[in-house]
């Protein structure tokens, strides 16, 4: 009896041990089998869950990627299209660079709600994107689209990408950027646009980028920068504009980037006439690390650095036109000043340069007028250490009150339009209100003088 009890107890313990062993095997083998296996031609790694399918000549996104994969690497394949049903998993990092992607369907990434990094770079056949291509990626922090031969970007491409911090668009074929293209990217800190074909920067092109830290625009074809183009970039510290086609840059545009620390403007055809005055004044006050800004025109300032020009070099520049949106230094000359120019410019070009209509004249350089003949507001405005040359002393003296009185109506009192104006006409055409007494005898004398000159012109 004792022996039977011993055998029976031993059998019960063996049964329990065997049952426990099978339970352990089931937990180890069968339970993990509930998770989708690694896709064919891919390698999977745990902690964090990573699916690597790179360089396998895949033409589509493979099926069977585990839903909880945190990183999916599909780079260097031959994938051609990304459709709305291409991604049935939830991941944080997705690499698709080095493929042959030609089309991305709107909403293709909408299932990737927690995606933080998307790399689509080096897809040379990706020339166009639909507006909703990145819809739903509200947690995306880094987006790579470099070297894709993109020619245009839809105006709503980055709509609601509020978390984006890094945007790589360099070395594409972008010719222009829509206004408000980046307006939703309030947290963007790095914007790379170098190596494109951008020609102008409009007033609203960077609106909304209030946290941008660095902006790379070098190696483009930029010719014009609106004076308000950088108005939202108060936190910008690095700006690269070298190797473009810039002849001028509004000083007002640079005043808006108050936190700038590193600025590169080299390898541009800078014009250092009066149009450079506002930028030169900004450089005098700025405390930044800057590249050289070498002048290419006018000829007497070629190969000089704009930053180190003297105040005398801009002493004859007119007042800037407050209505110039591009920031170009322009002016509308008063009647007296314009008449003086008509007398002193070469006869061969007098008729072509002088027009009877109200006009806004480019301040500098003049095609037919030498720099020393540029007008100045007043000789008293020069610092005492500068001595006036004979040409400078001969310039007309126009006080600010007269300048603004005639603004917009410059031809109202011009009676002599050619170089044949008689000697002393300057004093007759522009009498001083303080020196001419208003009496009947004077009026009669003045009228008689006008009639005499009129008869002289009519009958020779």
From TrEMBL:
One Gene Ontology cellular component term attached to this UniProt record is:
perikaryon
- Tell me what topology the record assigns in the membrane: Lipid-anchor
GO MF terms here are: ganglioside GM1 binding; ganglioside GT1b binding
Superkingdom of origin organism: Eukaryota
- Give the subcellular location: Cell membrane; Cell projection; Membrane raft; Membrane
Keywords attached to this entry: Cell membrane, Cell projection, Glycoprotein, Leucine-rich repeat, Lipoprotein, Membrane, Receptor, Repeat, Signal
PROSITE patterns in the record: LRR (PS51450)
DNA-binding listed as a keyword? no
Stored SUPFAM superfamilies = L domain-like
Instruction: Give an example GO biological process.
Output: positive regulation of Rho protein signal transduction
The LRRNT domain extends over 37-71
Q: What is its main location?
A: membrane
So which residues are the signal peptide here?
A: 1-37
The LRRCT domain extends over 268-318
Similarity comment: family membership:
Belongs to the Nogo receptor family.
Name of the protein this chain belongs to: Reticulon-4 receptor-like 2 Nogo receptor-like 3
The source organism is: Channa argus
């Amino acid at each position: 009896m004792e022996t039977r009890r011993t055998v029976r107890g031993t059998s019960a313990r063996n049964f329990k041990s065997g049952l426990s062993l099978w339970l352990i095997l089931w937990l180890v083998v069968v339970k993990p089998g509930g998770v989708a296996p690694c896709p064919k031609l891919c390698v999977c790694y745990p902690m964090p869950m990573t699916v690597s399918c790179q360089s396998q000549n895949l033409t589509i996104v493979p099926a069977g990627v585990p839903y909880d994969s945190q990183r999916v690497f599909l780079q260097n394949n031959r994938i051609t299209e990304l459709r709305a049903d291409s991604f049935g998993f939830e991941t944080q990092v997705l690499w698709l660079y080095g493929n042959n992607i030609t089309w991305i369907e709107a909403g293709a990434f909408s299932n990737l709600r927690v995606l933080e990094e998307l790399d689509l770079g080096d897809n040379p056949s990706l020339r166009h994107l639909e507006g909703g291509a990145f819809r739903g990626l509200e947690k995306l922090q880094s987006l790579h689209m470099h070297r894709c031969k993109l020619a245009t970007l839809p105006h709503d491409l980055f709509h609601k990408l509020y978390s984006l911090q890094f945007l790589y668009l360099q070395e594409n074929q972008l010719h222009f950027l829509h206004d408000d293209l980046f307006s939703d990217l309030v947290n963007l800190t790095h914007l790379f646009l170098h190596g494109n074909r951008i020609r102008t920067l409009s007033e609203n092109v960077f609106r909304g980028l209030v946290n941008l830290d660095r902006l790379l625009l070098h190696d483009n074809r930029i010719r014009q920068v609106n004076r308000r183009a950088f108005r939202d970039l108060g936190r910008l510290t690095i700006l690269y504009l070298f190797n473009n086609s810039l002849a001028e840059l509004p000083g007002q545009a640079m005043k808006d980037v108050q936190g700038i620390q590193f600025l590169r403007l080299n390898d541009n055809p800078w014009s250092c006439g009066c149009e450079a005055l506002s930028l030169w004044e900004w450089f005098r006050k700025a405390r930044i690390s800057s590249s050289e800004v070498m002048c290419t025109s006018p000829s007497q300032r070629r190969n000089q650095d704009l930053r180190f020009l003297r105040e005398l070099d801009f002493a004859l520049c007119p007042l800037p036109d407050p209505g110039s949106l591009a920031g170009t230094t322009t002016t509308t000359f008063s009647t007296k000043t314009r008449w003086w120019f008509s007398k002193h410019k070469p006869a061969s070009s007098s008729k072509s340069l002088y027009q009877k209509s109200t006009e806004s004249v480019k301040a500098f350089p003049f095609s037919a007028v030498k720099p020393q003949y540029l007008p100045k507001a007043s000789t008293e405005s020069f610092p005492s250490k500068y001595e006036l040359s004979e040409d400078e002393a001969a310039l007309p003296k126009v006080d600010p009150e007269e300048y603004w009185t005639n603004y917009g109506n410059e031809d109202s009192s011009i009676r002599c339009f050619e170089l044949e104006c008689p000697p002393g006409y300057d004093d007759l055409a522009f009498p001083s209100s303080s020196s001419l007494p208003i009496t009947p005898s004077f009026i009669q004398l003045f009228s008689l003088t006008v009639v005499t000159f009129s008869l002289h012109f009519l009958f020779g």
